[in-house]
Amino acid sequence: AMMEELKLTHSQRRYLMDCVKRGDALPLQRLPPSGKQPVPASHPPACQPHRLPARPLLRPAKVCQAGDAYTREKFKPQPTRDLEKEKRRLQNILATGKDEMEEKVEQVLIQKKEEEIAEPDRFEELMNEIQERKEFLAEMEALGQGKKYQGIVLTEISQKMHEMEIIDKKRSEEMRRIMTKDFPSGNKSNL
């Protein structure tokens, strides 16, 4: 199709097909219109780019050995662990009979247990969330977008307040139970 687009003559097409069959490079210049085959321009060898052959050829052993293929990298060992740290650890084991690392692991486990026990108060979280929504609504009103978000934010705030009321009722019931256990003979109606 390309040959037809370039309107090559029959001899030019035959020349190009012969080049392809041999594996030679195609000519860089346009073929002359006459039936003569183009003569490649002779360039000095320094200017010609190095071309690889069309088919891979075996390289002689001298060429392979002349390259860097047979040279090995020198092994450069690096310290795999901190020797000073290992010395201090061994001294600690010999002096106290305990490994310093084991104590650190135990301390980390104790800290994790303490963090799990100290759960954040849900009532305070709800208070913070309501405050964030109020601040957001104030920012949107300052930007002129207050009407767009007012319904959504007020609905979320009312949901949070309803959840806070439920938590408050549960806490007050728990307080009543605790107070009635502490004062069983007292009048319950006064509490």
UniProtKB/TrEMBL annotation:
<dbReference type="InterPro" id="IPR007914">
    <property type="entry name" value="UPF0193"/>
</dbReference>
<dbReference type="Pfam" id="PF05250">
    <property type="entry name" value="UPF0193"/>
</dbReference>
<keyword id="KW-0175">Coiled coil</keyword>
<feature type="coiled-coil region">
    <location>
        <begin position="80"/>
        <end position="118"/>
    </location>
</feature>
<protein>
    <submittedName>
        <fullName>EVG1 protein</fullName>
    </submittedName>
</protein>
